[in-house]
User: Fold proline--tRNA ligase from Cuscuta epithymum.
Amino acid sequence: MASKESKRSSAKGKKEVKKETGLGLTYKKDENFGEWYSEVVVNAEMIEYYDISGCYIVRPWAMSIWEIMQTFFDAEIKKMNIKNCYFPLFVTPAALQKEKDHVEGFAPEVAWVTKSGDSELEVPIAIRPTSETIMYPYFSKWIRGHRDLPLRLNQWCNVVRWEFSHPTPFIRSREFLWQEGHTAFATKEEADAEVLDILELYRRIYEEFLAIPVTKGKKSELEKFAGGLYTTTVEAFIPNSGRGIQGATSHCLGQNFAKMSEIFFENEKGEKAMVWQNSWAYTTRTIGVMVMVHGDDKGLVLPPKVASLQVIVIPVPYKDADTQGIFDACSSTVQKLLECGIRVEADIRDNYSPGWKYSHWEMKGVPLRIEIGPKDLANKQVRVVRRDNGAKIDIPMESIAEDVKGMLVAIQQNLFDVAKQKRNACVQVANTWDEFVKALNDKKLVLAPWCDEKDVEKDVKARTKGEMGAAKTLCCPFEQPELPEGTLCFASGKPAKIWSYWGRSY
Amino acid sequence: MASKESKRSSAKGKKEVKKETGLGLTYKKDENFGEWYSEVVVNAEMIEYYDISGCYIVRPWAMSIWEIMQTFFDAEIKKMNIKNCYFPLFVTPAALQKEKDHVEGFAPEVAWVTKSGDSELEVPIAIRPTSETIMYPYFSKWIRGHRDLPLRLNQWCNVVRWEFSHPTPFIRSREFLWQEGHTAFATKEEADAEVLDILELYRRIYEEFLAIPVTKGKKSELEKFAGGLYTTTVEAFIPNSGRGIQGATSHCLGQNFAKMSEIFFENEKGEKAMVWQNSWAYTTRTIGVMVMVHGDDKGLVLPPKVASLQVIVIPVPYKDADTQGIFDACSSTVQKLLECGIRVEADIRDNYSPGWKYSHWEMKGVPLRIEIGPKDLANKQVRVVRRDNGAKIDIPMESIAEDVKGMLVAIQQNLFDVAKQKRNACVQVANTWDEFVKALNDKKLVLAPWCDEKDVEKDVKARTKGEMGAAKTLCCPFEQPELPEGTLCFASGKPAKIWSYWGRSY
Assistant:
C-alpha cells in the first residue's frame, strides 16, 4: 500500500507524502514561521490548497471552529435585536461607485463577471468585496420615520477581494467567509454605543474563545475604513513574525454613506433628518490568528472552547493484558464525558499504534488526550495528557468528569495567559526614530507618542518601506498611557497628541 | 407625513405606496396568481426586488424561516456524522469541464469572472453552479483506503445559475442559498441508503416544517441530475398554477464522477476499488413553495414551526377603559408565552390603530393574534384569532400557555391537511393522450401509465410545447398504484412499465 500511495502522491505534488503519515512537521515555528504555518494548516486538516491561487478549501476541522464562534456571535447579536438577512453577491458598477472614497479603497480588488454561458453581459457586474453599496439604497427605501429606526441587519456570507499580495490561508485569501453587520440609527450617540458593543463581542471572540489577547483601539485616519467616519479595532500580534494583525473592525460610518444613498427619516419633531450608520465584520481570519498564536512544533493547539473535539481517548493495549477491559473502559469514559457535555471521542482504530495516534491528535491540536492501559485499568485511573504544556496527570476514574472539566478550563486560561505574556514581552516603547527602527527590526510591537497627522504616517510608511513591508499604525489604544506635556512625536518631532501602536502587519 | 411619504414613493416606483400602507393586496390569489405571488413576498417583507434582474434581497422575515429549517437539517446531518466544510466559490474551466454530461447541463447558465480591478484574468474563472467538479478532485486526494470511507461533507453556501427564463423570487433566481451534501462510500448499498435517508429529511422539512405535502419518487432519465446515476426527489404541487415543483433532490451519482476524478481506494481485500457517490441539496426555493401553497388574499400564512413570530399580542384600548391594565395584560401574556418557548411579541405602537395592526400581521402571516381589550380584561380572558382559518376563540388567561400551544399545533396540522386535500383533489389519472391533454389543461397533476422511455418523454415535451411550457415527468412515485398487465403507455401505446406523475413545472 505504501508504494501505491507514494506513486499517487508523487503524481500530485510532493507535500502529500508527509500529510499521509501525519507524523510531524518539517518546519519549526521559531525557525521558518511562514513555512511552518502553511504546513500546519494542511497537516492538521484545516486547509487544503486549491487550484486557484488565493482560494482555499476550509475542511471540517477548521469549519467547526468557525461554527462555534458563529453560534456565539449570532446569539449575542440576536439578543441585541439585530436581524439576519441576505443581500445579493452581485452589485452593479453604478451602485458600487456611488461612494468615491469607498470605491477607491476597493476598486483594484474587485472581481468582475462579464459573461454568462457564451454571452457577454450588457454591463459587467461586480462581486461584493463588502456590502455597503449593495445594502444602503434599500435602507433608503425602508426607512421613512423615526419608528423605522434603528434598522439593524447582519448577514453571514462570502466576499471576494482579488488581492495580489501574498495569499495566506485564513489570513489573506481572495474569497473568505465573514459576518457583516449594517445598522442605521437616529442619533450619533446610539451609533457610537453600538460600535463599542460590537467591538466588545469581537474582543470576547478573541480572548474568551480563541484565547488570544487583543488591544481595543481606534484606527488612524489613514487606516480607517474607506468612506467611514472612524474605525475601531481589536488588534492582535504575532510574536513569531513580529507583525500586528487586525482582528476585527467595527466602523462608525457617520452620515457619509447616508448622504450618498439618501437615507433620510422624519424625526420626532417632524423634521427631515439623516441617519447615522455603522458597519462591522469579523472573518475566518480569526482561525489563522489562532493557529499562529498557539500552534507549536507538534502542530495545532486548540483552545477547548473552540475545539470540536476536546478530548481524545486512546486505548493502550498490551499483549497479555485485558484488551476487552481496556476498550470497555474507553467506551465508558467517552460516555461519562459526553454526559457532561464534553466533546469527546475514542480512537479505537486497530491499524494504528498508540504512538501514531498520539502524534496524530497532537497535530490536530486536541486539548486533552486520555490514555487507558492495563496499569490504568488495574488502578481504576486514566492518564491525561495536556496538549498545551505536555503535562501528564493520572486521575481516578471516579472523578473523571469533574477533573476533565476543570482541566479544560485550566487549558483555556493557560493558553490565554501564555499568549498574553508573550505578547506583552514584545511591546516596546519608542520615543525617537532610532528607537522606533530598532524596535521594528527586533520584531517588537512598538508603542510610540505620535502627533496623529496623516502625512506623518505616510512619511513613516515611506521611510520603512522594504522587503518586509512598511510599518504603519496598528491602533491608538483606548487605554492610553500617560502622555506628559512636552512629549514629542517619535517621527515628526512635533508635539505628540496620542500614544499609538505601530508595526508591520498582515 | 403621509404626503411626504407618497412623494418619496412616487419618486421610486409605483409599487411602494401600497407597501407603505401594508393594508391588503391588489391581486387575488385565484385570479392573478403570478402577480399575487410577487406582491405578497414584497408586502410581507420577505423579499425586496434588487436592481439586478433575477437577484433578490432576502429580508429578515424570510431569512428567519431559512434559519429555522437550517437548524433542524444541520442537527440531523450532524447526527449522521456528516461534517460541514467550505469549498471555494470559483472553479477553473478545466475542472468544470471534466464531466461531459454534467457540464453540458450547466454550461449555459455559468457566470464567468474575467477581470479583477482593471486587469484581465489570464484564464476566466467560473462561479459555482454546484460543487461536484470543485470538490471531487480533493476527494481523490483525501481518500486512500477503506478506512477513509465514508467521506460525508456538506456546505451551506450561495450558488449562481445565470438563467434567462422568468426569474421569480425564491423559486427561480440567479443566485440562491442552499446546502449541498457530497458523500463517498465503499459500496453502492451504503450510497443507496443515504440517498433515501436524506430524502426523508427533505420530506420532513416540507411536511413537518412547511406543512406542504410532497411525493417521494424517482426522476426520469431525462430529468435526472446531469452526470448522475439516478435522482430521487420530493415533488410538491401548486394547485393555483397547476404546476409541479421540484422540492429538493437527493442524487446517487454512481461511479461516474469518481471515474472522472479518479476517486479510488484500497478495499478490505487490498484491491483497488472505486467509490460510490451521492450529492443532495435543498434551497431557498422551499420558502417560495410555502408562500404559494399557504398564502391567501390577506397575505402570507406561516406554519407555526417556521414562524419567527408565532403569536402577536395587540392591545385594543377603548377611550374610557383601563388602558394601563390592558397594556399590563399584554406584557404578562407575552411573558407567560415566552416562558413556554413560544415566539411572541406585543405590538404596542401608539401610532397605528388595532385594525391596521390586524391587517399588518395578517399580511406577514403570523399564525395567531391575541387581542386584549376592556371586555377581555374584565372577563380575565383574551381573544385569539387564527390566521389559517380566521376562527376567533376566547380563552381564559389562566390556561393561556397550554391553550396557545395546542392551537399552534392544530394550525400546523390544519395547514398540512388542507394543503394535502387540495393537492389530492388535483390528481387526475390519465390513461390516454386525450385524457392527458385535458387533465393538463385543467391544471391537474397527471398520473399516467408510462413505458419509461426517454424518447417518449421527449416526444410528450415536443407535443405539449406552447405558451405555458411543455409538460414533462415530475417523478415516478415510490408508492406505485397497481399496474394491471396489459396497461398501455398513455403517450406511446407501448406496454406501460410504471406510473409516473406528469405536468408543467416551475
Summary: The first strand of chain A starts at residue 47 and ends at 49. Chain A touches chain B through 65 residues (CB under 8 Å).
